[in-house]
Design goal:
single chain; alpha/beta; Rossmann fold; 7-stranded parallel beta sheet; about 375 residues; 15 strands
């Protein structure tokens, strides 16, 4: 099968959708299918893998769902996309966030094959979709199969575009995050209880509530340590560094960005993983990473997180924005090694259901169903 994976986001800039596309590509090619990734790429991006087709090097930052997305608005890609689709004759075109500007919309405009759309995002209200619905409906009508990564994502998109959606979740590289070969980070593997946060320091990630909770945690467990890992810069962390100094929290470690190879070692090192996000999460890939690592979780009970973690099973869920509840849940787990072990094992078993080959096979089966249906429809029309 000849497959196009289309993403509106800069590739290979780190992000959940980029990672999703990358793993699908890896699995499909490993099974013998021909795959092309069509994406905006920066002009100075070097070393792109051979099956990536660069569409426009003009990248702009677009605020979206409490984060910043790097997309292309360049109209210059219109004709190149048209020529590309005519030349390649894909069997399936799989568009991720198909209503995002502008690449997926242009691809849908010119596509004459089986179109699949995956909806990743979640927010309680999406005014842009509400306002743009009449304009976007013809593009939605060209999508033969609609996938959502979670019930939260389906709840959002179906509110504006009712129809049939299948749930195929995000995946996890089980061996990468849960392999027995992984060793803890030596300098933090010293017997002190470690709390881990992974993510950017954006408002929606709720890190400020973890920082406000931390004095209460240290009061109960004086030798606790907080490790902060993520793609943030000096400006992002500065307010939290000041807060830590003001409250004499010398055990906060702002690690920053780490390599893909090193990240699983931080999960291996921690005793509790914390995800204090306040919203806009459709799924929570970091939760799966922690679960695959066999670590218990303290997270907020937002819609997207409840799709992954069951309160009292793989971890504890607390009210968003409640630093006292966050501190209490973390302290409870740090004081109870048996409970941490039990929750970690439950998480590891659940994460095994999300291993990427399992998820990619579900996606491929969906493609095949759609291709067969379209072929039958054409026969019936003759």
């Amino acid at each position: 099968m000849k497959i196009a994976l289309v993403t509106p986001y800069e590739y290979p800039y780190p992000g959940g959708v980029t990672e999703h596309v990358s793993y699908l590509d890896r699995c499909f090619r490993g099974w013998g299918h021909e795959v092309k990734i069509i994406a905006p790429c920066a002009e100075d991006e070097e070393g792109l893998q051979g099956n990536v087709i660069r569409m426009s090097g003009t990248i702009v930052s677009l605020p979206f769902s409490g984060s910043v997305s790097r997309v292309s608005f360049s109209p210059r890609i219109y004709r190149p996309v048209k020529r590309l689709l005519k030349r390649e004759q894909f069997d399936v075109i799989h568009l991720h966030e198909p209503l995002m500007p502008v690449l997926p919309l242009i691809v849908l405009r010119h596509s004459k094959t089986v179109n699949v759309g995956t909806f990743h995002a979640y927010r309680e209200e999406h005014r842009a979709l509400q306002v743009m619905r009449p304009v976007l409906q013809p593009f939605m009508d060209k999508i033969d199969g609609r996938i959502c990564v979670s019930e939260a994502a389906r709840e959002m998109v179906s509110r504006y575009f009712p129809g049939e959606y299948v749930i195929i979740p995000n995946g996890i590289d089980l061996q990468h995050f849960g392999g027995t070969h992984l060793q803890p980070i030596e300098r933090y593997h010293d017997g002190r209880p470690n709390i881990l946060f992974v993510g950017r320091l954006e408002k929606r990630k709720g890190f400020r509530y973890l920082m406000r909770a931390y004095p209460h945690i240290v009061e109960a467990i004086p030798n606790a340590r907080l490790m902060v890992v993520g793609a943030y810069d000096r400006e992002d962390k500065e307010p939290f560094v000041r807060y830590a100094r003001m409250h004499h929290l010398s055990s906060v470690r702002f690690v920053g960005r780490v390599s893909a190879a090193e990240l699983p070692r931080y999960y291996k090192t921690c005793d509790v993983f914390c995800a204090p996000s306040t919203g806009f999460e459709s799924f929570g890939i970091v939760l799966l990473e922690a679960m695959a690592s066999g670590k218990p979780i303290v997270a907020t009970g937002i819609t997207g997180y409840r799709c992954v973690v069951e309160d009292g099973q793989e971890g504890l869920l607390v009210e968003p924005g409640n630093e006292r509840a966050l501190a209490g849940a973390i302290v409870k787990l740090l004081r109870d090694p048996a409970l941490r072990q039990e929750m970690g094992e439950r998480g590891r078993r659940k994460a095994a259901r999300y291993d990427w080959p399992i998820i990619a096979r579900q996606v491929l089966d969906f493609y095949q169903q759609l291709v067969q249906k379209k072929a039958q429809d054409r026969l019936d029309a003759e």
